[in-house]
Write a structure and sequence with these properties.
With 675 residues, this protein is of the alpha+beta class. The chain is built from 13 helices and 34 strands. The strands form eight sheets. Strands 1, 2, 3, 32, 33 and 34 form a six-stranded antiparallel beta sheet that branches.
């Protein structure tokens, strides 16, 4: 029983304060390290069929973490209440598959993008379409909503980034620079910048007020999949197919740090609302990173698969993953992850000190926001259907993207955290730390970041510790497990197990797997021949050897390597592989078709201008052997590409889903021959 003059407080950093109300002094403090030890750190909340066809995209509300929107091949947009089994709203109106969705901050509007390049803005309260916007020539891959106005930003497979004015129903800016499909884009917290990333291995920063590209980040060795602005600081994080996450300072435009490659590709990243740390969602794990210096605080296995979105609310990370027609919701208790728990006192203080130092040396979006009143944008002369629409002198970009004063609204409803299920096995006992009496720090107002305030709150915790174990831990075996069930029963079995060598064990399990073993052995021998013919200066010999093997899997493996390094390609290599690429486009295996599409797009991006330039060049007087050879190679390559184009057009009507999208992107890439 606590005295009437005392009050008990529980902090997020797992500290219990017992404070004297009259003197405002903390007369003792209890530190519990694993109060939630009986529950899981990460669990699947629900899994349900989200659409009648394949689910392509999903977005979680960032304010409450309780609303989710999905889009699928059935051309529908479904709205879900997380934790509830049934759909609460279905939005219909798209004429093709929905491939991108985005919720606004208030979770009152949804923006969706379709495979045909059409955007739609929906009002969830009125359950109707507000605007339909057209202008992209290919499927829309990503969307974001401007935080201070009725503007939407979209990225497409046509390589364009477009800014749309919802009120005027048209495109006001079109930004060019990417050379491949755009995977993700974000508007900065102050509404001044847009950053986009693409399969062309770059992330590009666009200045909305100047109407042009501000900088291009080229530090990735492969496609860039996802990116996020820091909620407070001038900091950008992005992850790519090379399985790393990189951080840039947006003031100096320099690379700050890069994480070590993970075991699987990173599909999603999210900053903590306080700004530190960063969470990354891979194929089968969640990792927690710091960036100055680069370090991994924690990593836990989470078998969620293809992560589509992350949100952090109430100290819980809410995520959604997609597979075929199913959508899954996963919850992770952030307070059970380092650096929020499980660190020693010295480690925690060091992490807080690093966070304070990192923040103090960088500008803040919050500090740099202009405080001007909202302005009415001037009328733009750009046509929404004009692909060449660019910012014009008539557009006052400073006025259009000026920060607007927020409206006073009713405070949002508070949601309780999702209850965690119990652990499958008991955790170690609770450890309690009793601190000496420490005077409480006075409450002061400050303009520092949340991470700095968290550091100040943890200041009174320093002192001499006296650890008291509440639960004796003298067990020498796992609780609830009978080890005898897993041991051999008698001496004869034990002796037989000892005599069983690795070769004998191999022979014992080998029957029934001869066919697969022979296939894998053949593949290994073919790859060894390709490797022996590989030369750093030229890969033509290795390509010829791979084609001579007549093994599609070996050719696909080789093409996957060639697509990672563009400098290995030449016109001769293109002429060698193009006949096989046309065949792979018609293959029955999805991986073969995807690799073939990627290789053809790479050839078009790097050699289309060279081919067209040589074919269109006028003849020269005299004999130029080099030019004639180059002309012959370009003519052959052009002919082979046209055959591949016909195959892609035929294949387009036969496939759907991810393969269909890749083939359609390939069809758009061939448009360079029509210009």
């Amino acid at each position: 029983m606590v005295n009437a003059c005392a009050v008990v407080k529980c902090a997020n950093d797992k500290l219990i304060f017992i404070q004297n109300v009259r003197s405002f002094k903390c007369f003792f403090l209890v530190h519990y390290e694993k109060m939630t030890a009986a529950t899981k750190r990460a669990w699947k909340l629900q899994e349900f069929p989200a659409h009648g066809a394949k689910v392509n995209c999903a977005a979680i509300g960032q304010s409450t973490g309780r609303v989710m929107v999905t889009g699928g091949d059935d051309r529908k947009v479904n709205v879900w209440s997380i934790g509830k089994p049934n759909v609460i709203m279905t939005l219909t109106g798209h004429t093709s598959a929905v491939e991108a969705v985005r919720l606004d901050t208030a979770e009152e509007r949804v923006v969706t993008g379709s495979r045909s390049g059409t955007l739609k803005v929906w009002d969830l309260e009125q359950h109707k379409i507000l605007r339909t916007l057209t202008g992209h020539k290919a499927n829309i891959r990503c969307l974001d909503i401007h935080p201070y106005g009725d503007f939407v930003v979209s990225g497409s497979s046509d390589t364009f980034v477009k800014v749309w004015d919802v009120r005027r129903k048209g495109c006001i800016f079109t930004y060019r620079g990417h050379t491949d499909c755009i995977n993700c884009l974000r508007v900065s917290p102050d509404g001044r910048w847009v950053v986009s990333c693409s399969d062309d291995s770059t992330a590009r920063l666009w200045d909305l007020t100047a109407g042009k590209q501000f900088h291009s980040f080229k530090d990735f060795s492969g496609p860039v999949e996802w990116l996020e602005f820091h909620p407070n600081e001038f900091l950008l994080a992005a992850c790519g197919a090379d399985r790393t996450t990189k951080f840039w300072d947006l003031e100096t435009l320099q690379l700050i740090s890069s994480t070590e490659p993970e075991s699987s590709p990173v599909r999603c990243i999210k900053f903590h609302p306080d700004g530190n740390p960063l969470f990354t969602g891979g194929q089968d794990s969640l990792r927690v990173y710091g960036w100055e210096p680069s370090c991994c605080f924690d990593a836990i296995p989470v078998p969620w698969g293809k992560v589509a979105d992350l949100s952090i609310v109430n100290n819980q990370l809410v995520s959604t993953s997609l597979y075929q027609t199913l959508a899954s919701v996963w919850i992770v208790d952030v307070t059970r992850l380092k650096p929020f728990s499980g660190m020693s006192e010295n480690e925690g203080l060091a992490a807080e000190k690093n966070s304070e130092e990192a923040f103090s040396g960088r500008k803040s979006f919050a500090k740099e926001k202009p405080t001007s009143p909202p302005a009415t944008p001037q009328k733009s002369s750009n046509d929404e259907n004009n692909e060449n629409a660019e910012p014009t002198a008539g557009d006052d970009k400073e006025e259009i993207f000026k920060t607007k004063d927020a409206l006073l609204q009713t405070p949002p409803k508070k949601f309780e955290p999702f209850p965690a299920p119990p652990e499958d096995t008991p955790d170690p006992p609770v450890s309690v730390v009793i601190r000496k009496q420490v005077p409480a720090r006075p409450k002061t107002t400050s303009t520092t970041s949340k991470s700095s305030r968290a550091a100040d709150a943890s200041e009174p915790h320093r002192g001499d510790d006296a650890k008291v174990s509440l639960v004796p831990h003298d067990r020498n075996k796992p609780a609830g497990l009978d080890a005898e069930e897993f041991l051999l029963k008698n001496k004869a079995q034990k002796a037989q197990a000892i005599r069983l060598t690795s070769e004998a064990a191999k022979k014992k399990i080998e029957p029934g797997h001869h066919a697969m073993s022979s296939v894998l052995q053949s593949r290994i021998s073919h790859l060894q021949l390709v490797r022996a013919a590989w030369s750093p200066d030229s890969v033509k010999s290795a390509v010829r050897v791979a084609l001579d093997q007549d093994d599609d899997s070996v050719i696909v493996d080789l093409l996957g390597i060639l697509c990672l390094k563009h400098s290995l390609w030449s016109l001769e290599v293109c002429n060698l592989v193009l006949p096989k690429l046309g065949y792979l486009l018609s293959a029955k295996y999805d991986s073969y078709v995807l690799v073939a599409c990627k290789a053809v797009k790479l050839i078009l991006r790097n050699f289309a201008s060279v081919i067209m330039g040589n074919l269109a060049a006028p003849p020269t007087s005299g004999i130029d052997i080099n030019r004639e050879e180059r002309y012959a190679k370009c003519k052959t390559c052009h002919s082979l590409l046209q055959e591949v184009r016909r195959t892609a057009i035929e294949r387009q009507s036969q496939v759907v889903g991810k393969i269909g999208s890749a083939v359609r992107e390939l069809k758009v890439a061939f448009a360079v021959f029509d210009s």
